[in-house]
Amino acid sequence: MAANSTQLKTQLVRLDSDLEITPNASLAKLTTFKVGGRAQWLALPKHPDQLKDAVAWGNQQGHPITVLGAGSNLLVSDRGLPGLIICTRALRHSEFDATTGRVVATAGEPWSSLAWKAARNGLQGFEWTIGIPGTVGGAVVMNAGAHGRETADILVETEVLDLDGTLQVLKPDDLDYRYRTSNLQGSDCIVTSATFQLSPGHRSDDVKAATADDLKQRRTTQPYHLPNCGSVFRNPKPYSAGQLIEQAGLKGYQMGEAQISTLHANFIVNLGGAKADDVLALIRHAQAVIFERNGVELETEVKLVGLFE
Ligand SMILES: Cc1cc2nc3c(=O)[nH]c(=O)nc-3n(C[C@H](O)[C@H](O)[C@H](O)COP(=O)(O)OP(=O)(O)OC[C@H]3O[C@@H](n4cnc5c(N)ncnc54)[C@H](O)[C@@H]3O)c2cc1C
């Protein structure tokens, strides 16, 4: 679709597909951490044509393009992001086949919501996704996982759009899946949808009960009551990042309004007015302390986007 645009007085841009591209939009609102500056331009496509249109417009304007799902694994710089930010969270749709166990979902479908829908259809295999506040696209790219299960285990294929506007279908073997990452990370491909294979024919009530147990366990061990980005550090095998940080006495340690959670030491929470710079200072402090005490280099799982320091 041609990306002809109309400039309105507000500088907001409206494309042929009726997609609005908003200048100077808050990114803090689009992340679970609730920190970060502004997007030079923000697009929230609601259907695939709008997504293509956004990419074409970004290319025409020569803007770098950054993709955001639910922003639940991101630390966005206080200085904001240049270029076009495409947030996929409005691309929401999923279909479940209770007989075959096949599930097809679009990029913005909330990952966690699939768990309840699968349970209603008597499908096993999505229980562990409950409580992970990302999107399907983010899970496919990050290889989201929990309790020894990960996205790569259940992915059949994913459709991606490249920056030339070409769609292609990729299989898990194409994606070089590893611990919490894939070769889609940092690539020019935008995940548009994914197909998963679950196990059919289970009692819906049993799957619901297992899902509810997983959720309860998360809610009691992780700080869901405050904005955060999930695990800040990867577990440096054979250690647990959270245990190392807790043993170093850093639970509750605070910089500005960013605090190492008192509930789970691998989480940093935003107590209200945290800045991305506060969070990064806390990350650097924890890394220095753990290196000094244990000789272990903690690597971040959260992705830093934009300019820092
Ligand atoms: C309370 C809490 C608990 C969490 N628990 C877990 C857990 O148990 N296990 C786990 O793995 N993670 C966990 N996370 C982290 C996070 O939810 C996952 O990494 C999730 O998969 C990120 O998805 P997202 O849509 O938010 O991606 P974002 O954070 O928006 O983006 C992450 C990366 O994926 C890219 N991306 C996103 N969507 C697309 C797309 N459509 N196409 C191409 N690239 C895309 C982005 O560019 C970025 O590089 C947790 C987070 C929180 C806040």
From TrEMBL:
Source taxon at top rank: Bacteria
Pathway of action: Cell wall biogenesis; peptidoglycan biosynthesis
Q: Which cofactor does it need?
A: FAD
- What does UniProt list as catalytic? R180, S231, E301
Gene Ontology BP, a term: cell division
Localized where?
Cytoplasm
* UniProt keyword Transcription, yes or no: no
Name the Enzyme Commission number(s) assigned to this protein: 1.3.1.98
Oxidoreductase as a keyword of this entry, yes or no, is yes
GO MF annotation, one: UDP-N-acetylmuramate dehydrogenase activity
Sorted UniProt keywords:
Cell cycle, Cell division, Cell shape, Cell wall biogenesis/degradation, Cytoplasm, FAD, Flavoprotein, NADP, Oxidoreductase, Peptidoglycan synthesis
Annotated ranges, domain FAD-binding PCMH-type: 34-201
Q: What reaction does this enzyme carry out catalytically? A: UDP-N-acetyl-alpha-D-muramate + NADP(+) = UDP-N-acetyl-3-O-(1-carboxyvinyl)-alpha-D-glucosamine + NADPH + H(+)
Q: GO CC: one term?
A: cytosol
Q: What class of enzyme is it?
A: oxidoreductase
Which NCBIfam families does the UniProt entry name for this protein? murB, PRK13905.1
Q: What does this protein do?
A: Cell wall formation.
The UniProt family comment states: Belongs to the MurB family.
- State the name under which the record lists this protein: UDP-N-acetylenolpyruvoylglucosamine reductase
Task: Print the organism lineage.
Answer: Bacteria, Bacillati, Cyanobacteriota, Cyanophyceae, Leptolyngbyales
What gene does this protein come from?
murB
